[in-house]
């Protein structure tokens, strides 16, 4: 059941729940530090994101509990005749709440926000190993047209 | 020869040269409008980008002529312990100036800027059809680890 599900901008107090979800998979567990208290670097990033109107850190809340998150960014661009694009990063749903359609509702809510801002395209990347995620996004209408490449600087 | 090559932040007067390069390939020609004067939407996007310290529209200049461009973005993020990432969009080098190593020098210059800001990873996406581009980025150390997906809202 996902009645009573709501989405809102994250507040500082949501950060432990967000980091818990980020850390809770094979890739995330290698790079996050879900500790109490959280490393200060998480809070510093949160403050930066909160101050910037082109960034929205979103949480999904069910029965008072944070059970999903994503980071929505609005990216001005010269290409596509100066078209505004949206980008979505680290979409996560709590493992306890999978298969309730929460991810889809979160992405639909996000698309609506993007439309309201006049965005022409929403983009995201997903690790090549996350085949389930690719199918999930394809069902929502996303097309896997690009190769996502990364250069590690550390 | 690419001696005398310099990189700098784009100014408004560079915009026609930038749009000309964006329009000058199969994919770009379908979505850009390289006209004189340029559609106002390009200038509106330029103003937004220029005002935002997390965005840098870069041009490469050779003998006084704009012959390359890329859009560098700094993206604050909760993931990777609140690590700052950089993203590069629409890297272009004038067709007349290919195979002079200008693209590599532009990307190296960009990596240096990213390092100075404390970025831990540079990310980009490249259309699956642009095999030459993938090889180019691999030579620079990029790894094609992700699927880039897009949802068209128009």
Descriptive overview:
- Two copies of one chain form a homodimer.
- In chain A, 36% of the residues lie in helices and 32% in strands.
- Chain A is built from six helices and six strands.
- Chain A has a five-stranded mixed sheet, sandwiched between helices.
- Chain A is globular and about 45 Å long.
- Chains A and B meet through helix 1, helix 3, strand 3, helix 4 and helix 5 of A and helix 1, helix 3, strand 3, helix 4 and helix 5 of B.
- Strand 6 (143-152) of chain A pairs antiparallel with strand 5 of chain B.
In short:
Chain A contains 6 helices and 6 strands. Chain A has helices at residues 15-23, 26-31, 40-51, 79-82, 102-116, 131-139; strands at 6-9, 55-62, 65-75, 85-93, 121-127, 143-152. The interface between A and B is large, with 66 and 66 residues.
Q: Notable features of this structure?
A:
homodimer, 154 residues, alpha+beta, five-stranded mixed sheet, 6 helices
* Count of distinct strands of chain A: 6
Largest sheet of chain A: 5 strands, mixed
For the biggest β-sheet of chain A, the strand order reads 1-2-3-4-5
Structural class of chain A: alpha+beta
Order of SSEs of chain A, N→C? Answer: EHHHEEHEHEHE
Percent helix of chain A: 25-40%
Give the assembly state of these chains.
homodimer
Element layout with pairings:
Two copies of one chain form a homodimer.
Chain A: E1 6-9, H1 15-23, H2 26-31, H3 40-51, E2 55-62, E3 65-75, H4 79-82, E4 85-93, H5 102-116, E5 121-127, H6 131-139, E6 143-152
Parallel strand pairs in A: 4-5
Antiparallel strand pairs in A: 1-2, 2-3, 3-4
């Amino acid at each position: 059941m996902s009645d009573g599900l709501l989405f809102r901008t994250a507040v500082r107090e949501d950060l432990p729940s967000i980091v818990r979800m980020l850390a809770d998979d094979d890739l995330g567990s290698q790079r996050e530090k879900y500790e109490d208290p959280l490393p200060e670097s998480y809070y510093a990033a949160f403050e930066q994101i909160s101050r910037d109107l082109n960034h929205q850190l979103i949480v999904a809340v069910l029965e008072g509990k944070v059970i999903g998150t994503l980071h929505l960014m609005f990216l001005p661009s010269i290409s596509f005749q100066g078209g505004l694009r949206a980008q979505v990063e680290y979409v996560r749903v709590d493992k306890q709440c999978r298969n309730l359609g929460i991810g889809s509702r979160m992405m639909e809510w996000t698309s609506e926000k993007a439309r309201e801002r006049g965005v022409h395209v929403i983009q995201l990347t997903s690790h090549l190993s996350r085949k389930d995620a690719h199918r999930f996004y394809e069902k929502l209408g996303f097309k896997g047209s690009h190769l996502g490449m990364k250069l590690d600087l550390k």
